[in-house]
Design brief:
Elements: E1 3-6, H1 14-29, E2 34-37, H2 44-52, E3 56-58, E4 68-71, H3 78-86, E5 90-93, H4 97-111, E6 115-119, H5 125-131, E7 138-140, E8 154-159, H6 165-176, E9 181-185, H7 190-204, E10 208-212, H8 218-228, E11 234-237, E12 253-258, H9 264-285
Helix pairs in contact: 4-5, 7-8
Length: 286
């Protein structure tokens, strides 16, 4: 029977666990209804579980000052934070500390007179929040995106926390010859780098790779891309119900990894489901 191995570094990171702890504390307190400004984390299953506990997702700052408003782990713009506080509601800031670090880095670079470039996915809530801390900044997802932008003499670079180091290095190489001064703030979360490295190592030694996490999760999608470069049989799933027995026929090594918004319980559930499917496949072959 094939061996199932989970990557040494996989699943929920500190920022996600902190955000979940803050929300659960607010639920247990029970004095105010709890709302999250956007999905707390990019994990549909977790968001549904929170909804079952009475937590509602809102798209804008509520007018109801009696609720507790949780700022999601990706952070928000300063204007949104000010609006929530001005309305007198309790604000629970669950912004990941590493995202805060990126926001502050962008703000410092802008204050020092640098044109700020954010290496990340345009439209992603974390990137939007970082951009808001540095007026006239812009986001790019790759070096090729620089083609449509005029660069100042002094440029500072900040990175979305879940980006890959390879993309940052590519952008830096493209910028360095076009400016007089370049300052790079590597704000990639160490947990992201560790998960990407562990996933790549495991994928090289696996016949099948299962990547667990929301399809709306940037870091999980990136993990799947990294794994597929070494293992052609890479499957990105959100839940065990998506697993197919055919994936595990005639294989010797199965690797499992998960994005930073995936709790350990979800990883355990997928591993258990894979074991069951492999048992059923063995029974059919006999």
């Amino acid at each position: 029977m094939a061996v199932i191995r989970v990557a040494d570094q996989a699943g929920a990171c500190y920022g996600v666990e902190r955000a979940l702890d803050l929300v659960h504390a607010a639920i247990e307190d029970g004095t105010r209804p709890v709302r999250t400004l956007g999905p707390l984390i990019h994990n549909p299953q977790v968001v549904r579980e929170l909804e079952d506990e009475g937590v509602r997702v809102v798209d804008e700052v509520p007018t109801d000052a009696t609720c507790s408003l949780v700022i999601r782990s990706h952070g928000v713009t300063p204007e949104v934070m000010d609006e929530a506080r001005e309305r007198g509601m309790e604000v629970i800031d669950a912004t990941c500390p590493y995202v805060k670090k990126a926001q502050h880095a962008a703000e410092r670079l802008h204050s020092a007179g640098y044109q700020v470039i954010v290496v990340g996915e345009s439209g992603h809530p974390e990137v939007e929040g970082i951009l808001a801390h540095a007026p006239r900044s812009f986001a790019i997802s790759s070096a090729s995106d620089l083609a449509g932008h005029a660069l100042a003499k002094r440029v500072g670079i900040v990175v979305q926390t879940t980006q890959s180091l390879a993309v940052l290095e590519e952008v830096v190489s493209a910028v360095v010859g076009r400016v007089d001064e370049l300052r790079v703030m590597n704000t990639i979360c160490s947990a992201t780098t560790e998960r990407q490295r562990a996933a790549a190592d495991l994928a090289r030694d696996s016949d099948v790779m299962i990547v667990i996490g929301g399809r709306n999760s940037a870091n999980t999608t990136r993990l799947a891309k990294i794994c597929s470069q070494s293992c052609s049989m890479t499957h990105h799933i959100e839940s065990p119900t998506e697993l197919e027995a055919d994936w595990f026929m005639d294989v010797d090594a199965i690797g499992v990894t998960a994005g930073a918004s995936t709790p350990a319980s979800q990883i355990e559930g997928v591993v258990s489901a894979i074991s069951s499917l492999m048992g059923e496949a063995g029974d059919e072959q006999r």
